């Protein structure tokens, strides 16, 4: 079966056909180990679907257990191979289906459940004639295109909720958000201020079956403690002095829709029991009334304080925490996904241009340096404001360090040492610094979503030095 690869790649320089076969057999082990290194899955199968060979990646891509050996294509995911291949053959211009031989390449994509994960796999299938078997063999190459698909989906759907990212962790979060939107489960969004919690809440609501009704939002941090109960549950006429009319609270307003409890950590402990009851029983009583109001509501909560810590400090009830955090999502801060800064900056500039600013905007190298090095305590909201500041104060469309808000200016090239307190910049390659350099390199590359240009900026070194250090530590970079 390895003959598939032999003619062009292995035997080309051999003197005779016999030499070629010997050479080929010797090379077989090497070839197999090489094929196991490839990041794509490779399967050889007979026309009846029996698998005769597969490489290491196949098990990874399909999430197969280590001790499971797939014998047939049917063992690889829930794929209707025949139907997919006929379809792919027709799509590639053939007017025949699977039964006829074809040297044409066929390609299709399939969403596959690999253990806990959902992957988008691209299958490329070629037919080859095997002389040893005297029959057709299918060579199936499988590539994981999940990251690409998630990115496309985000860029396309970003518009609706304005969420943009190229960071793998964020892309997974966005897909998870869409996936759980349809369920009724309570979602808890946690993350620093300005990371996009409110946007995620809107995205989940807009992708849910309740999307036709407006989501009801209540910011618990903005309501005085004494008014919170009536704000949530409403009050009956005459419930207290001045209650001349019946008032419908947010819970009743969110009937058949979604209630977004923002800053849920701000709810005082004495109200948490009543809130828990309302969440669990889906019913409550208005202030000053014994009548029970029943609701059909989906709950999403958000907090920028760590609610688990609040539970440990006895300021948040543990039972309420578990109730609201059936699905917890943590949104990473911008400084942990520096690679998102360029795409978000472009997005905010486009937005400003669409709102009437001149479209000749450029950003100087040291201004970029400052944007990439600044730790962004206010996250995306702060970046949006900084970009607007930069555009307004730009010099004929060029955003210079001086055009940026003062806090950020400090992080330009000349001053970037201050940032090194959080990310060590190592300027020598001496042995004792090796571990530190290695870690700093990996950190910078992770934050830069793998972009070498951005990683070099974060470390304050040029791209050649970065590349040399990557080589030294055997770090490969795809981009
Ligand atoms: N990934 C993103 N792409 C584009 N815009 C974003 C993204 N994340 C956040 N934003 C924008 O940043 C701003 C802050 O987002 P949002 O209000 O959702 O954050 P938050 O976590 O709810 O903040 P807070 O804790 O202050 O309530 C909004 O204007 C939002 O549109
Ligand atoms: Mg918010």
Give structural attributes.
479 residues; alpha/beta; Beta-Lactamase; Rossmann fold; Helicase, Ruva Protein, domain 3; five-stranded parallel sheet; 14 strands; globular; binds adenosine-5'-triphosphate; binds magnesium ion
List all distinct small molecules, including ions and cofactors, that are bound in this structure: adenosine-5'-triphosphate, magnesium ion
Q: Please report the number of helical segments.
A: 19
CATH class of the largest domain: Alpha Beta
Alpha-carbon Rg, integer? 29 Å
Description:
The protein is 42% helix and 16% strand. Helix 6 runs parallel beside helix 7 (197-206). The protein has helices at 3-10, 17-37, 56-62, 81-91, 146-161, 168-181, 197-206, 225-233, 250-253, 269-281, 307-312, 318-324, 340-354, 365-373, 379-392, 406-409, 434-447, 452-459, 463-472, and strands at residues 41-45, 51-54, 106-114, 117-130, 135-144, 187-190, 216-219, 258-262, 283-285, 292-294, 298-303, 327-330, 362-363, 398-399. The chain folds into three domains: 38-144, Beta-Lactamase (2-Layer Sandwich); 150-330, 3-Layer(aba) Sandwich (Rossmann fold); 336-472, Orthogonal Bundle (Helicase, Ruva Protein, domain 3). The chain is globular and about 105 Å long. The chain contains 19 helices and 14 strands. The strands form four sheets. Strands 2-1-5-4-3 form a five-stranded antiparallel beta sheet. Mean pLDDT is 83; it is low at 1-13, 97-101 and 417-429. The protein is α/β, with parallel strands linked by helices and 479 residues long. The protein binds adenosine-5'-triphosphate (ATP) and magnesium ion.
């Amino acid at each position: 079966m390895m003959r598939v690869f032999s003619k062009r790649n292995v035997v080309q320089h051999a003197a005779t056909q016999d030499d070629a076969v010997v050479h080929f057999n010797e090379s077989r082990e090497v070839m197999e180990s090489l094929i196991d290194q490839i990041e794509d899955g490779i399967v050889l199968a007979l026309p009846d679907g029996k698998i005769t060979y597969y490489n290491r990646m196949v098990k990874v891509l399909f999430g197969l257990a280590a001790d499971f050996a797939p014998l047939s294509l049917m063992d690889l995911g829930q794929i209707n191979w025949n139907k997919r291949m006929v379809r792919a053959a027709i799509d590639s211009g053939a007017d025949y289906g699977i039964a006829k031989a074809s040297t044409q390449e066929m390609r299709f994509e399939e969403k596959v459940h690999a253990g806990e994960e959902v992957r988008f796999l691209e299958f490329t299938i070629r037919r080859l004639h095997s002389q040893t078997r005297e029959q057709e063999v299918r060579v199936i190459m499988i590539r994981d295109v999940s990251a690409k698909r998630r990115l496309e989906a985000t860029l396309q759907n970003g518009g609706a909720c304005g969420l943009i990212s190229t960071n793998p962790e964020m892309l997974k979060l966005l897909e998870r958000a869409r996936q759980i939107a349809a369920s009724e489960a309570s979602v808890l969004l946690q993350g620093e201020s300005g990371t996009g919690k409110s946007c995620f809440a809107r995205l989940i609501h807009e992708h849910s079956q309740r999307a036709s009704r407006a989501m009801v939002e209540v910011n618990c941090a903005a309501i005085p403690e004494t008014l919170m109960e009536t704000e949530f549950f409403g009050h009956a006429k005459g419930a207290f002095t001045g209650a001349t009319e019946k008032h419908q609270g947010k819970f009743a307003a969110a009937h058949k829709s979604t209630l977004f409890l923002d800053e849920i950590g701000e709810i005082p402990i004495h109200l948490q029991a009543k809130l828990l009851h309302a969440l669990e029983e889906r019913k409550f009583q208005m202030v000053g009334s014994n009548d029970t109001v029943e609701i059909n509501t989906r709950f999403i909560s958000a907090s920028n304080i760590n609610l688990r810590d609040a539970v440990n400090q006895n300021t948040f009830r543990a039972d309420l925490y578990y109730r609201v955090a059936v699905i917890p999502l943590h949104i990473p801060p911008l400084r942990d996904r520096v690679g998102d800064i360029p795409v978000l900056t472009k997005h905010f500039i486009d937005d400003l241009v669409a709102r009437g600013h001149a479209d000749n905007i450029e950003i100087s190298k040291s201004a970029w340096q400052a944007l990439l090095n600044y730790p962004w305590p206010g996250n995306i909201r702060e970046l949006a404001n900084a970009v607007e500041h930069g555009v307004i104060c730009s010099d004929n469309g060029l955003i210079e360090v001086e055009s940026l808000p003062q806090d950020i200016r400090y992080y330009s090239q000349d001053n970037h040492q201050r940032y090194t307190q959080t990310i060590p910049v190592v300027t020598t390659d001496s042995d004792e610094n090796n571990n530190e350099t290695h870690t700093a390199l990996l950190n910078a590359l992770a934050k830069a979503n793998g972009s070498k240009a951005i990683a070099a900026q974060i470390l304050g070194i040029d791209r050649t030095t970065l590349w040399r250090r990557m080589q030294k530590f055997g770090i490969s970079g795809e981009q």
